[in-house]
């Protein structure tokens, strides 16, 4: 099976390459500049067609949440217009498309985990651009699979886990927000799920459920909880350690507002594809161990 993935260095893309190599019989073709650019829609269809994919995974995105507030036009060009062009290219080739989206389509005001049918109401430009991308993808490819995920980390790229380890190496105490709750999610676990869904879409196209699904690590916690888990695992592995000072969102203002509740209910994914991502604590520990060992 050939899977064309948008992007070349993102966490999900890199994780897909690693996991596919372990599975075997799956070829990942990464698409990136200069031949493929989400901000230049005219490059998208030719690059995807040249990859001759059985499945297209739309993983690349403008993900700088705070920067999006001052670069709204680019965020929408990449996350909405570009995403639509990817879906349209897959549709033209007659192959399924899997699109990666985000918890930021919600405003976080719900007191329980969000389900797919809950009303969407982004708080900022990034969330609005990703919501527009979801809508554009479904308009171009009605049979698309959209996977909303959250709080993504991995041994690759820039992410919260790597930031904690880097900053913790030079400071005794870190202030970390404790009133935003979500489901930390390993990009490697996302990759495993994406590969399973892709295989199902190819092997059983008529029996595969399409639409919007939530895909996050099992369990929940605050950013401070996640930081504590990082340092617990790091200390056990002989890496950096620091005290976690639990602070409020008001203590750490950012250009873009974050949802207080980013918890996502993954029941629909489990019922449709039989997929359950591991508990986030175990995946955080595995990631920290790899980073401490120098295995990027």
Keywords, please?
single chain, 296 residues, alpha/beta, Rossmann fold, six-stranded parallel sheet, 9 helices
Total DSSP helices: 9
**CATH overall fold name:** Rossmann fold
Overall shape? globular
User: What is the CA-CA span between the terminal residues?
Assistant: 26 Å
Record the strand order, biggest sheet: 2-1-3-4-5-10
Helix content percent band: 40-55%
How many structural domains are formed by the residues? 1
How many β-strands, per DSSP?
12
CATH superfamily: NAD(P)-binding Rossmann-like Domain
Structure classification: alpha/beta
Largest sheet: 6 strands, parallel
Q: Identify low-pLDDT runs.
A: none
Radius of gyration: 19 Å
Strand content: 15-25%
List the helices and strands in order. Answer: EHEHEHEHEEHEEEHEEHEHH
Structural notes for this entry:
- The protein is α/β, with parallel strands linked by helices and 296 residues long.
- It has a single domain (2-292), classed as Rossmann fold (3-Layer(aba) Sandwich), CATH 3.40.50.
- It contains 9 helices and 12 strands.
- The chain has helices at 11-23, 44-51, 72-93, 125-140, 160-168, 187-203, 223-236, 267-273, 280-292, and strands at 2-6, 27-31, 55-58, 97-102, 145-149, 152-153, 173-177, 181-182, 185-186, 211-214, 221-222, 243-247.
- The protein has a 6-stranded parallel β-sheet with strand order 2-1-3-4-5-10, with helices on both faces. A two-stranded parallel sheet has the order 6-9. A two-stranded parallel ribbon has the order 7-12.
- The longest helix is centred in the N-terminal third of the chain and has 22 residues, at 72-93.
């Amino acid at each position: 099976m050939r899977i064309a993935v948008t992007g070349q260095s993102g966490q999900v893309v890199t994780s897909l390459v690693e996991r596919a190599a372990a599975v075997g019989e799956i070829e990942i073709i990464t698409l990136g500049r200069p031949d493929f650019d989400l901000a230049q829609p005219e490059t998208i269809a030719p690059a995807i067609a040249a990859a001759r994919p059985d499945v297209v995974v739309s993983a690349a995105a403008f993900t700088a949440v705070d920067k999006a507030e001052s670069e709204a036009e680019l965020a929408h060009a990449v996350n909405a217009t570009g995403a639509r062009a990817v879906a349209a290219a897959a549709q033209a080739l007659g192959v399924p498309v899997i699109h990666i989206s985000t918890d930021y389509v919600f405003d976080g005001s719900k007191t329980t985990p969000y389900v797919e049918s809950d009303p969407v109401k982004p708080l900022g430009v990034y969330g609005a651009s990703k919501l527009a991308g979801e809508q554009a993808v479904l308009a171009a490819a009605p049979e698309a699979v959209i996977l909303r995920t959250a709080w993504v980390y991995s041994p690759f790229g820039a992410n919260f886990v790597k930031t904690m380890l880097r900053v913790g190496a030079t400071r005794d105490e870190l202030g970390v927000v404790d009133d935003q709750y979500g489901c930390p999610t390993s990009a490697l676990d996302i990759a495993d799920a994406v590969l399973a869904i892709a295989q199902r879409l190819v092997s059983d196209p008529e029996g595969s459920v399409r639409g919007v699904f939530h895909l996050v690590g099992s369990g929940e916690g605050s950013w401070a909880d996640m930081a504590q888990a990082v340092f617990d695992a790091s200390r056990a592995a002989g890496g950096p350690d620091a005290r976690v000072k639990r602070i409020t969102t008001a203590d750490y203002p950012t250009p873009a507002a974050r949802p207080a509740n980013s918890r996502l209910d993954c029941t629909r994914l489990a019922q449709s594809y039989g997929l359950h991502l591991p508990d986030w604590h175990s995946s955080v520990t595995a990631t920290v161990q790899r980073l401490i060992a120098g295995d990027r």
